[in-house]
Amino acid sequence: MALPAELNGLQPLGAGNLRWFGFKLYDATLYTRQGQAFDWNQPFALALRYARDIPSARIVDASVEEMQRYGMPPERKNSWRALMQSAFPDVKQGDEIIGAYQAGSVRFWHNGRLTATVEDPLFGRMFFRIWLDPASRAPALRQQLLRSQG
Predict the structure, then answer these.
(1) Among 71, 78, 108, 143, which residue carries the largest CB count within 10 Å?
(2) Is there a contact between 101 and 128 (Cβ–Cβ < 8 Å)?
(3) What pLDDT sits at residue 148?
(4) To 5 degrees, how large is the angle CA 36–CA 14–CA 38?
(5) Is residue 8 classed as helix, strand or coil in its secondary structure?
(6) Rounded CA gap, 63 and 24, in Å?
(7) Cα 16 to Cα 93: distance, rounded to the nearest angstrom
(8) Are 27 and 51 in contact (CB under 8 A)?
(9) Cβ(120)–Cβ(104) under 8 Å?
């Protein structure tokens, strides 16, 4: 997975894939500054390369559902859903979405094209917790991304 040039300095920390009922949904790679241990206070990026076609609505619905598990403020649900609808188009097998987090700002790319910038630190934390929180629904993937960091 190739990162946009503006993310130079980020290197892979860990990688894995997400399967749902035996079907691979995507490969994921977590990038951190020089591949160092993950830290919310340092820039990082998460790249997902899709193994199947998935409509935008399904990606957005799953993201909202997971963010609600982590305490998404109800008053932000609609605005965050709209942000994600613009950030996440329908994906085809082989497509890549990259999300980068730095100083509370989040940027998303689809196949190398910037699709959204979100200047909301709470959004960034809630979104990336889907993969990086100890309570993630994909604990094996989390462990692979963080390389058993804890």
Answers:
(1) 108
(2) yes
(3) 58
(4) 35
(5) coil
(6) 17
(7) 17
(8) yes
(9) yes
DSSP labels, 76-122: GHHHHHHHHHHH---B-TT-EEEEEEETTEEEEEETTEEEEEE--HH
**56 within 8 A of 89, measured Cβ to Cβ:** yes
The position carrying tokens 């980020």 is: 10
- Give the whole-angstrom CA distance, residue 104 versus residue 102: 5
Measure the CA–CA gap between 90 and 96, rounded to whole angstroms: 11
Say how far apart CA 3 and CA 97 lie, in whole Å.
Answer: 10
Report the mean per-residue pLDDT for the chain.
94
- pLDDT single digits (tens) 99-128: 999 988 999 999 999 999 999 999 999 999
CB 32, CB 47: distance < 8 Å: no
Residue 63 predicted with pLDDT over 70: yes
CA dihedral of 54, 55, 57, 59, whole degrees rounded to 10: 20
3-state secondary structure 12-34: EEEEEEEEECCEEEEEEEEEEEC
